[in-house]
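Hi X.,

You mentioned you wanted examples for the new student's onboarding notes, showing what a folding record looks like when two proteins sit in one file. Here is a clean example. The first protein comes first, with its sequence line followed by its structure tokens.
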Amino acid sequence: MSTDEVRIVKLAGNMEVVPDGSVTTPRGFSAGAIHVGVRSDWDKLDVGLLASEAPCVAAATYTKNRLPGASLVISRQHLSSRRAQAVVANAGCANAATGKRGLDDAIAMAQAAGAKLGTDPHLVVVASTGVIGTYLPMDRISAGIEKISLSPDGGLDFAKAIMTTDTVPKHTAVRGGGWSVGGVVKGVGMIHPNMATMLCFMTTDAAVAGPFLAAALRRAVDVSFNMIDVDSDTSPDDIALVMANGLAGGPAIDEGHPEAEAFVAALTQVAVHLAKAMVADAEGATKVIEARVDGAASQEDARRAAREIVSSLGVKTMVYGKDPNWGRVLSAVGNCGAEVSEEKAAVFVQTPDGGELCMFRDGSPQAYDQAKAKASLMPKEVRFRVDLGLGNASATAWGSDMTEEYVRLNSMYTT
């Protein structure tokens, strides 16, 4: 990790993890969800509503897919003011590649949520996830939004309402400094973020200045959602949003504020937890792959190398098959575009007892216990470390293995 990341991690250690925490843990937030049948073959919650008692300072990062979904287009327009008060989201239909009707439907969702809450619809963020190229059933969605019952305990239902092929809801919250940060996320396929994740919503009751909130989110996203991979695909609907309603009171946290770094640490802790939860629940996955790169010449080189390892299909399938073919890890590093030297690089795998097994060093394969190497690929989490021997920069990335079940799920997603 960089010096900055190490400091953030240490500060995060002072945060209290809230049992069963979610986006409604911070004061003033409530949520709820309903089943309306966005997809006729689903019988689960599929429309969710999240609201704050007071207007919030807001910041977001978005997909870099050049063909964004209609709901995302409308949300970017609404968030240009850096203000928000609610989120309305649906699962089952991505509202992407839907033309003018898709834009009109996203606006209608915001209007329905605004009418339900008595809130300016321009303060409503709209999010959609699911099948691309299908239209939202707006008659059922609008009627459903009106029937949603909001509650401070509704964060879990909101998390469930944004799930598609996710098998478990993903949520967390931390508390510290008289304020808290909570979050939910969905996404287990089409995950290779260049900014965020599929759908991520974070909340805080801390008072935070707008520019600082945006900078804090970027820092958190860079070491969490931007460092994971499932299948090298980037969705057209990706968004990571944070809303701060300030109901904890006190002066707004800004650069130089005594709690500035603590807030970044809390937001980062929530983001990292959610990012790793996505990888652990990845479509068809049986394992989480962690790749730590040390000794890089620059922070960007460390990030590139770590991401390339967890994105490599060779590494993913090797881990699934429990085949200690360390050459695939080294090859991935050589393919990442970072400065590398075969004579200075070293490859390690973490053993079940917490130690390390060196498999390659000083330009040559190392003698090691094959049985111990294979055993290192048995746990639910498989950890590799590569030391490039060229500098002091480090980074960590997380990915999933690739299995037959992933192919099965994605070969019949709409049928």
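Then the second protein repeats the pattern, sequence line and then tokens:
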Amino acid sequence: MRYHKAPDETIRRLPSYLRGLALLLDQGYKSISSQGLADFIGINPWQIRKDFSYFGGFGTRGVGYDIEKLVKQIKKILRLDVVHKAALVGVGNLGLAVLAYPGFGVYGFEVAAAFDVSPQKVGRKVHNVAIEGVSELGTLRKRGIDIAIIAVPREAAQQTVDELVKAGVRGILNFSPCYITVPKKLKVITIDIAMDFARLPYYMPRQAGA
């Protein structure tokens, strides 16, 4: 089910709620109030209530939220109630870190395939994923993989994306530091670590005399 009226900022916050709720379940909590969840993840309780209001009433007045039930509801909203297999393109230092990252499983993602242009890397197995040549990208559709992560150099990014589009990919997480163009039906989320880092000093208090 798609929720047209939910703003993008709300959708961006839902994974934060999901991660916090998963941690609370691990700690043995069964239910929690919006204030308790707000204190735990560092978001205002009114914001949590407003975000959830886009999708109907989740909590019970005077009781709060049933955590296990709320986790299932958020996963359904984000379409994380099924396992999504993803392909990684680019197995350099950043790509290796992506393969080693254990957090994808919390959200139902599995990096099921990895690709690189280097003959020295093709055929190796990293974290139980065999590295394949980029010439095999065309096999993604028949393997049921429609999400990709790209961690290739800037100059290779657009060509990589074009190949992924041909292979039937519908969503891309882009770690390459550049703008890429895709068909309107395809969703791209770009993460530029350096650009986000560049925002940090603005929020830091100035030193005396600076």
